[in-house]
Design goal:
This protein has helices spanning 2-6, 8-23, 26-61. With 62 residues, the protein is mainly α.
Length: 62
């Protein structure tokens, strides 16, 4: 899952070049931007949860 989330930015740019710039479609741009923002938010939540779990593990080991 991590590798797919790391590809969010390049895939976003490819889709913008293919779909938005060719057809001048603003609704498509908005949809792709919302999807990319959602993926980045999911990645941020996932990383913060992993960080929290690591800190709890370290505290319990002490």
């Amino acid at each position: 899952m991590v590798n797919v989330l790391a590809l969010t930015s390049p895939l976003f740019m490819l889709q913008v070049y293919d779909r938005v710039l060719a057809s001048h479609s603003v609704p498509t741009l908005v949809g792709i931007a919302v999807l990319a923002a959602g993926l980045y938010a999911f990645q941020c939540l996932r990383l913060s949860q992993a960080s929290f779990n690591n800190s709890q593990f370290i505290r319990s080991a002490e």
